[in-house]
């Protein structure tokens, strides 16, 4: 698995505001969208394109456009939904599929409670969106699921990753070709409840939780 960690002052600034527990949900959602645009720019460097003839007002030429089949974007509900708008702004022609997964906070087992994806993903490039990579359980399950459906190129976009989760993911996908991970930043560690430290808390709650 290839891992890329963004290293950019604008990313650092936006993540610091995200981390602040006093940042309200509307600002949090806006910042997540902005961070996804920066992540997606890097993460789509390997997106497949094909030649197309086009005619400018001046001359005929050959340009490059996204290849078919179209890329598939998969946000992991709930928190990954906060990254969807930013991603589809950059990739408006992508298809979108959904996976609902929740971590049991006691056992850390992953429960898949919703799935709406094409049956056959053979030859598809898939972009998985989930802001938090903690133990890695959710992403490992997701990647296995997508590979079983035939996806041959899987790129995960996460905002914060813990070293423990990155390591687990690396082992979980060992031997698989064309799996990539793009992180906005890597944090220090997990705490005893498997939350990322310093992290930003529960991303789903920060995005969609009720105001206190
Ligand atoms: O790496 P892991 O240990 O698997 O943890 C990461 C998962 O936890 C969060 O989702 P959560 O289960 O809280 O669901 P939510 O998005 O509905 O809040 C996060 O969005 C990831 O999906
Ligand atoms: O720190 C964490 C860990 C898992 N899920 C989150 O939303 N935050
Ligand atoms: Mg959550």
TrEMBL record:
Binds 1 Mg(2+) ion per subunit. The magnesium is bound as Mg-PRPP. The keyword Nucleotide-binding applies. Allosterically activated by GTP. 5-phospho-alpha-D-ribose 1-diphosphate binds at residues 78, 103, 130-138, 202. Uracil binds at residues 196, 201-203. It comes from the Bacteria. Pathway: Pyrimidine metabolism; UMP biosynthesis via salvage pathway; UMP from uracil: step 1/1. It catalyses: UMP + diphosphate = 5-phospho-alpha-D-ribose 1-diphosphate + uracil. GO terms for biological process: UMP salvage; uracil salvage. Its cofactor is Mg(2+). The keyword Membrane does not apply. Residues 6-209 form the Phosphoribosyltransferase domain. CDD domains: PRTases_typeI (cd06223). GO terms for molecular function: GTP binding; magnesium ion binding; uracil phosphoribosyltransferase activity. Keywords: Allosteric enzyme, Glycosyltransferase, GTP-binding, Magnesium, Nucleotide-binding, Transferase. It holds the Pfam family UPRTase. It is an enzyme of class 2 (transferase). GO terms for cellular component: cytoplasm. Its EC number is 2.4.2.9. Catalyzes the conversion of uracil and 5-phospho-alpha-D-ribose 1-diphosphate (PRPP) to UMP and diphosphate. Belongs to the UPRTase family. This is Uracil phosphoribosyltransferase. It comes from Rothia amarae. The gene is upp.
């Amino acid at each position: 698995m290839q891992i890329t960690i963004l290293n950019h002052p604008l990313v650092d600034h936006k993540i610091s505001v995200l981390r602040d527990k006093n940042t309200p949900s509307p600002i949090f959602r806006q910042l997540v969208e902005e961070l996804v645009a920066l992540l997606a720019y890097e993460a789509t460097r390997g997106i497949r394109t094909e030649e197309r003839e086009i005619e400018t007002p001046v001359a005929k030429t050959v340009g490059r456009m996204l290849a078919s089949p179209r890329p598939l974007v998969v946000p992991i509900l709930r928190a990954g939904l906060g990254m969807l708008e930013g991603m589809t702004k950059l990739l408006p022609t992508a298809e979108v599929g959904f996976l609902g997964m929740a971590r049991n906070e006691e056992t850390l087992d992953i429960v898949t409670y919703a799935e709406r994806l094409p049956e056959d993903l053979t030859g598809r490039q898939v972009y998985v969106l989930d802001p938090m990579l903690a133990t890695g359980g959710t992403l490992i399950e997701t990647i296995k699921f997508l590979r079983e459906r035939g996806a041959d190129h899987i790129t995960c976009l996460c905002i914060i990753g813990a070293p423990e989760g990155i390591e687990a993911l690396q082992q979980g996908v060992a031997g698989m070709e064309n799996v990539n991970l793009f992180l906005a930043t890597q944090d220090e560690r997990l705490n005893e409840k498997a939350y990322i430290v310093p992290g930003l808390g529960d991303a789903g709650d920060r995005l969609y939780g009720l105001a206190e």
